[in-house]
Amino acid sequence: MNIQIFGKSKCFDTKKAERYFKERRIKYQFVDILRYGMSRGELGSVKNAVGVEALSDDPEITYLAYDSDKLDKLFDYPELLKTPIVRNGKQATVGYCPDIWKTWE
Fold it and tell me: Which residues have a Cβ under 8 Å from the Cβ of 78 and sit 6 or more positions away?
């Protein structure tokens, strides 16, 4: 398992996700999304796994017509992303999803 947690350091759900993996002694890499962002490739991989609509519930994003415009906006403004974003290879989740993470173990 190669777990990456993209989140905000002050986000409650991000802290819960980190605790979930710590309690199970599963190694993970934490990336502060506000400080470092995500690469276009990482963002595209997450979009392929969960869909672009799941990445943000900001009305400014949902009203954009094209997925490519939405991704560009999310890439430029990572604070609009829902967190935590947890990746395991090509699999990904947005938000706190322990039921899905259990299937990864």
Answer: 33, 34, 37, 38
- Sheet with 3-7: strands ordered across: 28-32, 3-7, 85-88, 91-94
Q: Hey, is 32 helix, strand or coil? A: strand
pLDDT in tens, 9-25: 999 999 999 999 999 99
**86: closest CA among 58, 40, 45, 35?**
45
Please tell me the distance from the alpha carbon of residue 20 to that of residue 64, in angstroms, as a whole number.
34
50: left (phi over 0), alpha (psi -120 to 50) or beta: alpha
Place of tokens 């935590």: 84
List, for residues 40-76, the tens digit of each pLDDT value.
999 999 999 999 889 987 887 878 888 888 889 999 9
> Which of 57, 11, 16 lies closest to 33, judged by CA?
11
- Half-sphere exposure of residue 3: CA atoms within 13 angstroms, side-chain side: 22
